[in-house]
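tool_call: predict_structure(chain=1)
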Amino acid sequence: MRCGTECFIVTFEKDGDVYTKEARAKSQIEARRMVSSRYGADSRIKKIVKKYK
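tool_result:
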């Protein structure tokens, strides 16, 4: 784990199905990039929420 990372809950839609995944990133922008690179550019991100401990 990198220094300064936080956990984000990302809700996105791919092929008509809605998925909710956790992403460990430094910012919401980086979390968005991680999801789009892992699940493809055709995935539409609906919501990104910071997970609090």
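agent: The beta strands are 6-14, 17-25, 44-50. Proceeding to next step.
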